[in-house]
């Protein structure tokens, strides 16, 4: 049933840390000097706010980084032909010596992106379900013939293949149960966002139950949590800064939501909130500084003051 999923080593024991970056060379070089494990970029094709495009950002990140794992958080997979994604990711994986992880989601909050790419928004889930296993077949470097509803192709070979055997890990992002089931069925990991720790724990239980139903073991499956973060001496100031920053991204009032789905406050408060995600099952924290002007300081405080307080349950 899971022949398309390449065998992978179990994820490293313990807790891993990554940051969302703007992929600017100076910032990436500074981040790589810190004891972190990964860097991530996101983006859109046509969102209301000016943003970069994910694959271009990932290419910039591959050029600027030397050490850490790099990934997309996230690529809206249904907007793109799988052969193009397979080729781009294979090239980047080779260029980085096998450091790429592909985080994918279905989007939908900005319908204009789907109109721009001439993809019906109603098809985004089904297209993603077809694309993920097709990517893995294309990453073998062998000739592929695929009789699919959306991406039929005959005698297509994408080569050279990625460095990572079977291609980079494909991590499924999302918020709703269909995304959880997609992760259990097709993904190498799970990466929800704007979740409370309680909701994260519930998603872990749903994915484990779905995998059990499918007869799939999750030995090599990775549990990511994408969390916005802000650390200040004054808790109210941290939450207000985070609410303004995230509210601008999503064009809504986050003054209440910041209390449940964001790690914002003093060092003690942020450590307590992040520990709750770890207790809920997260093992790789992807943190996005939620600030209008204090990004570098927040990153350093998280690394130096917050992370040493976190522990992984036995």
Question: What key phrases describe this protein's structure?
Answer:
314 residues; alpha/beta; TIM Barrel; two-stranded antiparallel ribbon; globular
Helices and strands in order:
Layout: E1 16-20, H1 25-32, E2 38-41, H2 54-64, E3 69-72, E4 75-76, H3 82-95, E5 100-105, H4 111-116, H5 124-138, E6 143-146, E7 153-157, E8 170-174, H6 177-186, E9 189-192, H7 197-214, E10 222-231, H8 235-250, H9 258-261, E11 262-265, H10 267-280, E12 284-289, H11 295-306
Description:
The protein has 2 domains: 156 residues, Luciferase-like domain (TIM Barrel, Alpha-Beta Barrel); 130 residues, TIM Barrel (Alpha-Beta Barrel), CATH 3.20.20. It has an 8-stranded parallel β-barrel with strand order 1-2-3-5-8-9-10-12, surrounded by 6 helices. It has a two-stranded antiparallel ribbon with strand order 6-7. The chain contains 11 helices and 12 strands. 41% of the residues lie in helices and 19% in strands. The longest helix is centred in the middle third of the chain and has 18 residues. The chain has 314 residues and is α/β, with parallel strands linked by helices. The two termini are 32 Å apart. Helix 1 crosses helix 2 and helix 3 crosses helix 5.
């Amino acid at each position: 049933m899971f022949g398309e999923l390449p065998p992978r080593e179990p994820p490293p024991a313990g807790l891993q840390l990554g940051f969302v970056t703007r992929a600017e060379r100076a910032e990436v070089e500074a981040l790589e000097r810190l004891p972190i494990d990964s860097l991530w970029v996101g983006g859109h094709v046509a969102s209301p706010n000016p943003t970069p495009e994910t694959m271009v950002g990932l290419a910039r990140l591959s050029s600027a980084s030397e050490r850490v794992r790099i990934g997309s958080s996230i690529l809206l997979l249904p907007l793109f032909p799988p052969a193009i994604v397979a080729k781009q990711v294979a090239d980047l994986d080779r260029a980085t010596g096998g450091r790429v992880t592909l985080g994918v989601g279905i989007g939908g909050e900005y319908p204009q992106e789907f109109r721009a790419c001439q993809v019906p928004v109603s098809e985004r889930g089904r297209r993603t379900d077809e694309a993920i296993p097709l990517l893995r077949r294309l990453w073998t470097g062998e000739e592929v013939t695929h009789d699919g509803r959306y991406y039929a192709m005959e005698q297509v070979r994408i080569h050279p293949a990625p460095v990572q055997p079977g291609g980079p890990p494909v991590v499924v992002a999302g918020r709703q149960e269909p995304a959880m089931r997609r992760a259990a069925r097709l993904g190498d990991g799970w990466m929800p966002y704007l979740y409370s720790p309680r909701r994260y724990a519930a998603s872990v239980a749903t994915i484990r139950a779905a995998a059990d139903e499918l007869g799939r073991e999750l030995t090599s499956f990775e549990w990511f949590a994408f969390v916005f973060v802000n650390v200040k001496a004054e808790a109210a100031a941290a939450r207000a800064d985070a609410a303004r920053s995230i509210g601008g991204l999503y064009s809504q009032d986050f003054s209440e939501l910041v209390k449940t789905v964001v790690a914002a406050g003093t060092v003690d408060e942020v450590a307590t909130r992040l520990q709750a995600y770890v207790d809920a099952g997260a093992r790789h924290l992807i943190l996005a500084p939620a600030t209008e002007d204090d990004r570098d300081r927040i990153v350093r405080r998280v690394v130096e003051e917050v992370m040493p307080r976190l522990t992984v349950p036995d």
